[in-house]
Design goal:
Keywords: Acyltransferase, Transferase. Helices cover about 30% and strands about 30% of the residues. By secondary structure, the chain is of the alpha+beta class.
Length: about 400
Amino acid sequence: MNSVEDYTYRYLETDDLDQYNALLRYTFQVTEEELTATGWKDDEIKQSKFPVLERADVLGCFDGKNLVSQFAVYPLKMNIYDTVYHVGFVTSVCTYPEYTGNGIMKRLMIQGLTQMHKEGKSFALLYPYSIPLYHHLGWEIISNKISFNIKDRQIPTKVSAPGYVRRVAWDNTEFHELHSHFASITHGCLFRNALAWEEYWRWDEDDTNVAVYYNVKDKPCGYMVYLIKNDIMHIKEMIYLNREAQKGLWEYIHAHDSMIDEVHGNTYFSEPIAFEMDDGDIKEAIRPYAMGRIVDVAGFLEDYPCDPDGGELCIELEIADTLLPWNNRTFRIRFADGGCKLTNAPAEYHLKMGIGTLSTLLLGYKTAERLFELERIEGREEAVERLDDVLFHKIPYISDYI
């Protein structure tokens, strides 16, 4: 093992595929048994990573010729309050245990986010394996995942919809277009390209089904992805464009009541479903899902929409960012007419917060008032209230894991 000063850093190429795959498999402990259970073979997993290396920026740290740590940024588009942002989904973050504690990952992260900044990607998100670690580096929670267990007797029975449900193939065009439509109207949702869809299905079993709800005009308005196994219906994802589609999908679930004992599912709308049910005495568990980080405050604000009914506000936001120096300063911002921009005009108020706090605030996960109560924002309460007036407040829907 060489000294830390002798390590080299470079972007991975397809020739590095074997080492990339080996590091992933070792760090996340993907066993042969798990591969077999999900229908994958080792060579298939390895070959499937070719597109990732070609499409993503995968930065690696090498001790001599040996890859010891890596940090990938996968480019995607994201709906943030009906504005499409080019973002980076950070993935494949891993280091061999014997190399941890040397600051390697922090260096990889700085270099990866700096490259995003150069490319005009002002926001990054990830699925955290350690929330405290990412907190320390300026990331913050921005979305939730709610898991629920429903007994067969608790499945809603008084639901009906005029349309119909049809099962379709995984690569069905209407199914994919339906998700694109959903993403275009849903705050926080990621637009899935071909590789994102591949990642979406990577660990699913062959018996996984897709059911699409169509209205009376044969227009797809909702879908659910599910697997029936051991008398349990496992719902991976359910989305709908309107209440009719939601009811139609629950009617479809009820049609399976003779085949199943329970329904286990996930929802990413950040709203418990118990209240909507006749028998709401169900088991629900909520947990943080995605974390996010503004990479470039000035760039993020250029297209950021705000509430046109909130009036006009000129405010100074003093941002602390120990990782990315271009964010570690005071921004004077004017909110007006549904938009915002940096300005030199006199500010009415001054607030201070960290980059993680700003990220979760502008993504809508927490209000300024709540963050102020948690002592995450410093300043006058009146300023906090005015900031909430001009911001939208909606928790992001994020269901993807790249």
